Amino acid sequence: xxxxxxxxxxxxxxxxxxxxxxxxxxxxxxxxxxxxxxxxxxxxxxxxxxxxxxxxxxxxxxxxxxxxxxxxxxxxxxxxxxxxxxxxxxxxxxxxxxxxxxxxxxxxxxxxxxxxxxxxxxxxxxxxxxxxxxxxxxxxxxxxxxxxxxxxxxxxxxxxxxxxxxxxxxxxxxxxxxxxxxxxxxxxxxxxxxxxxxxxxxxxxxxxxxxxxxxxxxxxxxxxxxxxxxxxxxxxxxxxxxxxxxxxxxxxxxxxxxxxxxxxxxxxxxxxxxxxxxxxxxxxxxxxxxxxxxxxxxxxxxxxxxxxxxxxxxxxxxxxxxxxxxxxxxxxxxxxxxxxxxxxxxxxxxxxx
Length: 353
Known about the structure:
The chain is of the alpha+beta class and 353 residues long. The protein contains twelve helices and 13 strands.
């Protein structure tokens, strides 16, 4: 049954029903995903921010395709509009549908990354080392997905990605010579992510100066939080080209020590007992891995020197542990009349003849 008929256009009942059905189908799908993603369990898994972005992507995609199906059902030639060129050159032509393809690839890629990130964050880890390892794998997958997505878009424009890379090789060599430090940082970022010598959550010490916890590893730089809660941005080449001490590479448990000097004539066995007592009283010092030990290290100029060694999992705040120990040692030494000396010099004055 014909509803509208003109010289250029005819609308039938079947076309109208199909158009309405397309719009209803798109609306139902959008409502379904909206209800699904707003469930408490899903929102806790993905996070509120990621859930909103995924919903926005679903709204745009299904709204577009339902309207597109509606226009096709009504006999309106929407394909010809998408196939109209925006930019045309002898070597390349960009059409309106390329904009849609670009959005689908980039937005779809981001949605996929949100889902992977939610899975990674939700996955339980036995230790901080496993968390850092999982995070490194996630970053590798993330950059790989983005590389594939960009390659697909370039291919959709009609370029052969292999020929394009070959033609740009000379330019890339020139850029590499000009900004070799930046390229070095990028290559170092890939090395760190693949060999996992440095992971998120590791406590590192660079050149015996900077001590901090790795908060984030990017391709060019990494963010390290110092013991003063200051974020320091470090080029990745620092980790691969300089001596770096990773306190948590194989285990979160590390051994630390402090040096104590007592006056000559002190009971050295009592000093040993009090030092071990001070270490055992601190809640952050581990007694299971190995008990605290004391070494008599030297007969100093003004003191008998001892080294108290202990294990702790709190690699990041170890200076606080050492400070607490010194307070406790000072208290115990005062109670037992053990003196902590200071350097002394004897000056002899001879009268002139």
